[in-house]
Amino acid sequence: MKHNFLTGLVDFDTKWTEKLPIKTLFAAFKKVVPLVIINVYLHLIGKLFFDPSAIVPAIFHIRLKLMFFAQNLMLLTSAFDYLILAFVAALWTKYYLEAKLDDLGLVKDELLPVLVNFAIALIYGLTTYTYANQSAIYLVFVLLLTYLANLSFVYLTKWTKGKLADFGFAYLFWAAVILTIVIALCAFIPNQVSQSSFNGFFSMDFFSHWYGLVVAAIVTPIAFAFGFAIPTDLTTAATDLSQVNANLNAVYQAVMAVLPYPQNPYSVLTTSALIGGVGSTLALSICLLFLKSRPNRRLGLWSLVPAVFDSNKILAFGLPLFFRPLTLVPMVLTSTYGTVLTSFFIKVGILRPTVFTVPTGTPHLLLSFFASQTPLDALLVTFVIMLGAILIYWPFVKRLEQEAFNV
């Protein structure tokens, strides 16, 4: 049964990735991987060394008086994020229009739509960026606008039978209309959405029970795979949730107090479902290291250190993880597995929940060890979660390699 399911999933994945929009999008993703690697490591340096509560200065009791440099590095990496998004939009436009217009027997210069879609990504960045939402980038929004712009260009070209001048008035008017619509849409994005902060929502009592956390564990990888920004309430801002504050107050009053909210997003999801990023993708990086394919091993090697510190961006663009059924299924399985296991151990009293705050950059792999009142038990549970995640990913990764060889 397991073999039949996996075979069916691989067949579906193969057919899905052969569709022209997806095939050309994946080609664009893989083209920008070198830029993504540079971007990720710059982010990692900033997070570990220059953030006001970074882990390296906290551990070694040093104070880096490079505030000006740190701020400029932060701005550089944030601009780099949107630049990569713009390159993806531009490359996807070029690859897609070349293939689509060739299928229609039309010849057109794709430079204007490439520039328009490059500008779409930059407009999105300029209108939504704030200090608080550096990582809250909705890839799906930019890609949807890019695809609709491409379709409109194809339909205009097809309708006019390719007789319009490449940079004639009609195409320039088309570009102006597209950019005007994009600017208007970006202006209406609510701040709460652009910052990907939903504190009130995740502070609901529903997320203080195992079933609410399992729902979140299932939905989070799906949302990530479709290009939605993951709420900061599950990552960097998890300690701001009301359940976490209530638990912390209880511990301050009595060290081994009965916690009011033992199961919450911080004590369960952050520590078990997000090890290495959404879908516990540290396990995926480890699996890639043992494949026969040199490109996959190289990708695993480049992604390993960032994955330890909970960034899976290299994998997201390199495999990719976005819009990919064959990687989405194990991401959901590992996320759910870690959530259920951690919730169970907390429920039966084997594991004391994660309650304390930790320095910025602390790996989720060690979060429960540093922030739980039962550190050794927490470390053992994390090891079991990681082992299970590797076993879940392995058959899917092997099929991924076979699929690549068959292309």
Automatic annotation (TrEMBL):
UniProt domain PTS EIIC type-3: residue ranges: 5-396
Tree of life domain: Bacteria
Transmembrane segments: 66-91, 111-129, 136-156, 168-189, 210-230, 266-291, 328-346, 378-397
Keywords: Membrane, Sugar transport, Transmembrane, Transmembrane helix, Transport
Protein name: PTS sugar transporter subunit IIC
Lineage per the UniProt record: Bacteria, Bacillati, Bacillota, Bacilli, Lactobacillales
